[in-house]
Amino acid sequence: MISAIASGQGKTTVTAALARYFTQQGKRVRVFKTGADFIDPMMLQQACGSRVFSLDLWLLGLPACRAMLKQAAQESDLVLIEGVMGLYDGTPSSADLANAFGVPVLAVIDASSMAQTVGAVALGLRDFGPVQLAGVVANRIASDGHLSMIESALRDIPVLASLRRQEQALPERHLGLVLPDEVGGVDQILNRMADSLTVDMAAWQVIPRMQLLDEDAPIADVPQMLAGKRIAIARDASFAFIYPANLLALEQMGAQLDYFSPLADQAIPANADALYLPGGYPELHAATLSQAHCWLSSLNAFQQAGKVIYAECGGMISLAESLVDLEGKQWPMAGLIPGQIRMQKRLAALGMQSWDTQHGELRGHTFHYSTFDCPLSASAHTIKQKTQENGEAIYQIGQLRATYFHAYFPSNYAATAALFSVAEI
């Protein structure tokens, strides 16, 4: 488990550097991401070369997490789990996940503004829970002397690895890192990060191994509730926020997935039974989307044919009447849903939520920097995990459903199947 005292310590950088470092050593590396995240997993996938799935006790439940860990351990030499926020933040926290399976923790500590105090931070992280702290990854080290001071203060906690200050870091945007496809020379950046990483292999070799019992349940078979369905999925820089597990879930339920790019003005694939518009950055591509005539005409025809449309967050933004960007400029959107989206610099909503459907609870999260002034009454609301209060509105017009909520499909296959069928959810 790669964790830290807080966000901003360099968890993703260190996890990506470790993944690339050990991949270059010929190891088979699998990486998981704790919590709800789209962008970090894309960068981690770039670093390790395999899909990065969420591993979260609330989203998936303990049995599913155990089965995924066991499968990953059987197929790889090293499993890394990037935590979320600080080690003990959230319910459940990264520490809860680590302790549930006996996963040793590596504490990433930004040492750029301290030296011996790293020892106090590490001891606090270890003993507060406690957790099985295997060691520290000292990030943003200035010199060998700086590292020596840190090592002397850590007492019985080893420095498993250290990473020098990076001249070129992974670029960020308001919802996290920039998408890997938008970063020129991303592999060169990852290689430089791996080259800057110093790993104490002797200390690494004695990290306690996680024990998974042979009788632990395997991943259950997924019912074929979408067999024969063709689902069109928008996927490009404007519609990029897709859990890999969501795509896998649709495939496991028997759906055929057809991808297309609204940004490239591609029409919805012919013969599609349903349309999935995931989140992303439509606000960054509003000018292009507003002029994508093939895409817009196919979308209107799709709705008029009474076919199923499911749009979440950025997908919903693209369906509104208009979008006002941060500069105050208004852009026409598809207009399938009345109302105006307004971007803002301040975070509008963040957190785990669930949708209480007639098929049970469909879990997921919300994270957006915009508000929607919509005259429609919501057909339902999600429920906030922490407070059990109403969360995001869910709008329905015929067979179109739209919401800021990002659903995690494997949390409820029956509810997901209903989302993409002409059925009540």
From TrEMBL:
Pathway membership: Cofactor biosynthesis; adenosylcobalamin biosynthesis
Family under the similarity heading: Belongs to the CobB/CobQ family. CobQ subfamily.
Q: Does the keyword Nucleotide-binding apply?
A: yes
- Print the keywords alphabetically: ATP-binding, Cobalamin biosynthesis, Glutamine amidotransferase, Ligase, Magnesium, Nucleotide-binding
The identity of this protein, by name, is Hydrogenobyrinate a,c-diamide synthase
Q: Where is the CobB/CobQ-like glutamine amidotransferase domain?
A: 230-411
Q: Is the Aminoacyl-tRNA synthetase keyword given for this protein?
A: no
Q: Which InterPro entries match?
A: CbiA/CobB_synth, Class_I_gatase-like, CobQ/CobB/MinD/ParA_Nub-bd_dom, GATase_3, P-loop_NTPase
- One Pfam entry for this protein is GATase_3
Domain CobQ/CobB/MinD/ParA nucleotide binding, residue spans: 2-174
Chain segments annotated as coiled-coil in the UniProt record: none
Required cofactors, per record? Mg(2+)
